[in-house]
Design a protein that fits this description.
alpha+beta, two-stranded antiparallel ribbon, 9 helices, elongated
Length: 282
């Protein structure tokens, strides 16, 4: 069982920077990357590398420049002067608040301008790949824990399906006794035609037959076990959990006895717990 979970955290320190990565649950793969100004070329690289290693999850990547050399600040004075000129023409001399707003315009202030990005591009990319590898390792660790949990929940499902099957085997006799008692009450203990009683019981049993539901529950649970051997079973796990829950609901609706109803209800609870854990799997 070597599938990934979708929760993980990792970090890698470089020469004058650090990469940080975090992953949480997501229906698809959503990669968000925050980098200092001037290093925006790393964003598509990060998305492409992440897509190679992961298929689901909400991934947050951030690059933090740490040294004075790497965190220099440069102002695009020509562009700032142009903006101030336009503002003066429209509203007069800009206030301090207006100037602060101009500094927030993309491209006016660049952080990390002292860093020769061409010289460190390979290092930044190498460290990006390293932090993604560590994130995957973290998610694999979660996956191992989930595999054990899901395996235990599948054992519960299997046991409850077997219990439901045993209870279902006793349904014909329970129906026969209940119908016999009801008819005797209605006819004041008069003799009951056993052949007619057997016919009525057969009719009721045919309406309450749950063998197909039991068979499908068994097959779906086996399919889930097989999926746990795959690298990215998350979406299919969700599908089979829905099918398991559908069959358990049908089993409950067909039940004609308290023992079988209780087994079906407990089965639905176990499947719902299984479904919740499956949502954490890539």
């Amino acid at each position: 069982m070597a599938f990934q979970g979708m929760t993980g955290i990792a970090s890698v320190a470089g020469r004058a920077w650090s990469w940080n990565a975090r992953s949480v649950n997501g229906k698809g793969l959503d990669v968000r990357c925050r980098v200092p100004g001037g290093l925006e070329w790393l964003e598509p690289v990060a998305r492409e590398r992440s897509g190679r290693l992961m298929t689901r999850g909400s991934i947050s990547l951030s690059l933090v420049l740490e040294s004075d050399q790497a965190t220099g600040v440069a102002v695009n004075h020509a562009a700032l002067d142009d903006l101030v000129h336009v503002l003066e023409q429209r509203a007069g001399p800009p206030s301090p608040a207006a100037l602060a707003g101009l500094l927030a315009v993309p491209g006016i202030v660049t952080v990390g301008a002292r860093t020769d990005t061409g010289a460190i591009a390979d290092e930044l990319t190498t460290d990006l790949e390293a932090v993604l590898d560590r994130l995957v390792a973290s998610r694999l660790g979660e996956g191992a824990g989930l595999a054990a949990i899901i395996g235990g929940l599948l054992d519960d499902v299997d046991n409850l399906v077997a219990l439901a099957q045993d209870e279902a085997c006793g349904e014909p006799e329970r129906l026969r006794r209940a119908l016999d008692e009801r008819l005797r009450d209605l006819v004041d203990d008069a003799a009951i035609d056993d052949a007619r009683l057997a016919q009525e019981v057969a009719f009721l049993v045919s309406r309450a037959d749950v063998r197909e539901e039991i068979d499908r529950l068994t097959a779906h649970a086996a399919a889930v076990r097989n999926l746990l051997e795959e690298a990215s079973p998350g979406r299919q796990l969700g599908f089979f959990c829905q099918e398991l829950l559908r069959e358990a609901n049908t089993l409950s609706s067909k039940s004609q006895s308290v023992p079988l109803t209780n087994a079906a209800v407990n089965l639905k609870v176990a499947i719902d717990r299984l479904r919740e854990q499956a949502q954490n799997v890539e």
